[in-house]
Hints:
Number of domains: 2
Bound molecules: 5-S-methyl-1-O-phosphono-5-thio-D-ribulose
Helix content: 40-55%
CATH class of the largest domain: Alpha Beta
Number of strands: 14
Largest sheet: 7 strands, mixed
Order of helices and strands: HEEEHHHHHEHEHEHEEEHEEHEEEH
Amino acid sequence: MSGTEEIEAFQTVAWVGDAARGSLRLIDQTRLPTEFLEIDCHDAPTVWEAIKLLRVRGAPAIGVAAGYGAVIGARSQGLADAATVRRALGEATAYLRTSRPTAVNLFWALDRMDATAAAAGAGVSSGNGSALLDRLLTEAHAIADEDRAMCRAIGRHGAELVVPGEGILTHCNAGGLATSDYGTALAVIFSAHEQGKHVRVYADETRPLLQGARLTAWELQRRGVPVTLICDNMAAQVMKEGKVQKVVVGADRIAANGDTANKIGTYGVAVLARAHGIPFYVAAPSSTFDLAIPDGAAIPIEQRESHEVTHGFGRQTAPSGVDVYNPAFDVTPAELIAGIITEKGVIRPVNHETIREVIGN
Ligand code: MRU
């Protein structure tokens, strides 16, 4: 890994080529920070596996990758006619929905792809599979482009909340690696940094898969933002020492009342922030809201392999056969959240009414 030229160059999720033969290019995030490796996905199972294994991860990036994965799946039975493409698309989107359960962006993006095919019914002649596939690629590009724009807007709104010289704690990775570009929680920090606000970030390492250590610290360093890495269990002490004035995290799914699912450990950080009188903010695009779910109790929480806890990064660190509980996410209750920074503005206070007002139906 070397050179600042890669800072501008890295693209978390990209499409290479045309609709009929192109592929989805991803940074394999399981290899960071020591290796920068890109993989090309040419079939839906490879996309499914990349999402499942967290080669691509972070709610918005999962949605963008799934949109392109749907295009790849839609051509898998040939382009003889629109009906064939539509059938293959339906099978691919159903399959990709089974990759991970919590981030609603996955389902939101796949719903958009299915709706695009349904809406194209009238406009695309029954013989023209290629035309439908082109429409689907256009939609996948739109999902990626909109995400990029939403992240920039989140950065602008969030930076207004940042006071010069603040210490900001974040958990997991909600940066450019978790989105099309620039991030959500990290967009707020990048934007404040670019405005010369001299922030310092405390990055929780984020057990068990270390997205904070491997990805957030890497992104912040590359952009020249001062960052101090801490183990998750140090957050209380760091807050007590007065080093943190704000917490900003991302989200995987936000219920209609503002309860927010994010990486396991986020809820604990929110409780600590409340105990120390530190405002706790969530930064997320409207694609991460699930207004069909009344509150956090209905958010599905992904359970992952025990191996991630007992054999982190290749070394056994627990006795063989020990029982393990490994939920990948937790839910922070709305009452602990000072505000939700969206591309449409900051939702504050966080409740059913304010969310509906800003995000709509
Ligand atoms: O398991 P991960 O790495 O996909 O979890 C990611 C997070 O929890 C992020 O904070 C969230 O998706 C927001 S990304 C902008």
